[in-house]
């Protein structure tokens, strides 16, 4: 039996099944969906920040009904009644009536004011920095989504190789079971012909029981591996798994790669540093005055009148400049400077940590490759040894214990090679995660 051969379950081998499962896993993962919603929220926040540079129009109206309060006395009668009396005498008419002095209420009574106000900022550094920060927060969340995807890809690939390892172990034990069953049959026949003693029969029966127990354990391991893999894909745990045929070691090109700059953790810290720079600029923006403009188009009059005289426009430009704030802005600037140093220190630490992780993963893969190569050599040696002992046993020149020893060595070599093969692929996956070299679909 060739150790590296991987058997498909239920259906024939399908090339590219792992890539398809990765796409399914990313599409169905609930954590990634949650991060996607947060990204959508940040995109809307950026849209809101951009809209603050555009004109805004509001409508407002007010109506007042007043009585009492301050008044102004206007002597209308004292000023005009003498003149009106003289005019009446000259014209011999009553065309000019006598007037009373007026008392005018200062509070407007039965008065309305309705207007549309259009306003737009002309110069506002706070809005500029706010837009930059919101844009970088979108980039930060995109990186967070990519980080979740990359970790999920690692988990899916590792679970996939563990399943293949468990499934192939089952096939090895099944093949070996047929071998020991055949040995049990031959021994019973030889014992019936008085060619061997009962010890060989008992030993062969025990060997069958041992392999059955190992086969049961391997089957449970395969079942558990299938459950976990399906869990990662968010599908029924008992679903069957189509697998690719993996017969070779992965490429070893990543063993010499020491670049971790593509890791999302470092990208996030880089974006955080840029956000901090804009927060620093935002804190310093108080020295730049805010300039805006507005125009009111409306109508105001008494008794709800609306005509040419009631309509009006009002245009204005505003300027606001923070002259003194008791050092509040300087404290904000110092906070952003402290955050900057913290981010720089964290970046150096994380970069060294990720580089160490990469070196450890590369060493693990090198060890797995060496184990696989040694196991392959052991397979050839043990198979040759088994064939020789089996031939001697059939000729009566070897005892059954020697045959069992040869069988066990052969099977152990196959199992070790199977483990080493997929441990190598799992180590390769860990390196892909450590240097972010896998292209996320």
Produce a short descriptive summary.
With 441 residues, the protein is α+β, with helices and mostly antiparallel strands. The chain folds into 2 domains: 321 residues, Outer membrane efflux proteins (OEP), CATH 1.20.1600.10; 37 residues, no CATH class.
Can you put this structure into words, describing what you see?
There is one protein chain. By secondary structure, the chain is α+β, with helices and mostly antiparallel strands. The protein folds into 2 domains: about 15-55 and about 125-290 and about 325-435, Outer membrane efflux proteins (OEP) (Up-down Bundle), CATH 1.20.1600.10; about 70-105, no CATH class. It has helices at about 15-30, 30-50, 75-90, 125-190, 200-230, 265-285, 330-395, 400-435, and strands at about 55-65, 70-75, 100-105, 110-125, 290-300, 310-320. The strands form 2 sheets. The chain has a 4-stranded antiparallel beta sheet with strand order 1-4-5-6, with no helix packed on it. The longest helix has about 70 residues, at about 125-190. The protein is rod-shaped and about 165 Å long. Residues about 1-15 have low confidence and may be disordered.
């Amino acid at each position: 039996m060739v150790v590296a051969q991987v058997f498909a379950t239920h259906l024939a081998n399908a090339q590219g099944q792992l890539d398809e499962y990765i796409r399914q896993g990313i599409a169905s993962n609930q954590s990634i969906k949650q991060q996607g919603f947060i990204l959508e929220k940040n995109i809307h926040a950026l849209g809101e920040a951009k809209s603050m540079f555009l004109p805004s129009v509001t409508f407002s109206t007010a109506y007042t009904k007043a009585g009492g309060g301050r008044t102004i006395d206007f002597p209308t009668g004292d000023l005009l009644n003498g003149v009106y009396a003289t005019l009446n005498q000259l014209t011999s008419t009553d065309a000019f009536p006598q007037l009373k002095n007026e008392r005018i209420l200062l509070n407007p009574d039965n008065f309305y004011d309705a207007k549309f106000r259009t306003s737009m900022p002309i110069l506002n550094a706070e809005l500029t920095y706010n837009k930059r920060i919101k844009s970088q927060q979108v980039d930060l969340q995109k990186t967070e989504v990519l980080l979740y995807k990359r970790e999920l890809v690692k988990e899916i690939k590792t679970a996939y190789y563990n399943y293949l390892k468990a499934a192939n172990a089952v096939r090895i034990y099944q093949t070996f079971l047929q071998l020991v069953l055949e040995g049990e049959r031959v021994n019973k026949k030889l014992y019936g012909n008085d060619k061997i003693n009962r010890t060989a029969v008992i030993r062969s029966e025990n060997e069958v029981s041992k392999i059955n127990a190992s086969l049961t354990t391997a089957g449970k391991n395969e079942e558990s591996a299938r459950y976990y893999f399906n869990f990662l894909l968010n599908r029924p745990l008992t679903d069957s798994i189509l697998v690719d045929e993996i017969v070779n070691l992965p490429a070893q090109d990543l063993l010499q790669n020491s670049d971790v700059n593509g890791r999302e953790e470092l990208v996030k810290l880089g974006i955080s540093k840029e956000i901090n720079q804009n927060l620093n600029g935002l804190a310093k923006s108080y020295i730049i005055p805010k300039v805006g403009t507005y125009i009111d188009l409306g109508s105001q009059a008494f008794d709800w009148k609306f005509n040419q005289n009631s309509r009006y426009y009002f245009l204005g430009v505003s300027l606001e400049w923070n002259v003194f704030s008791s050092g509040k802005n300087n404290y904000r600037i110092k906070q952003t400077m402290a955050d900057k140093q913290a981010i720089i220190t964290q970046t150096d630490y994380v970069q060294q940590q990720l580089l160490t992780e990469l070196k450890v993963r590369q060493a693990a893969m090198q060890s797995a490759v060496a184990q696989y190569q040694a196991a392959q050599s052991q397979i050839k040696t043990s198979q040759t040894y088994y064939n020789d002992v089996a031939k001697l046993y059939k000729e009566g020149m070897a005892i059954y214990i020697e045959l069992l020893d040869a069988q066990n060595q052969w099977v152990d070599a196959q199992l070790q090679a199977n483990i080493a093969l997929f441990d190598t692929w799992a180590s390769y996956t860990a390196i892909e995660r450590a240097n972010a070299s896998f292209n996320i679909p």
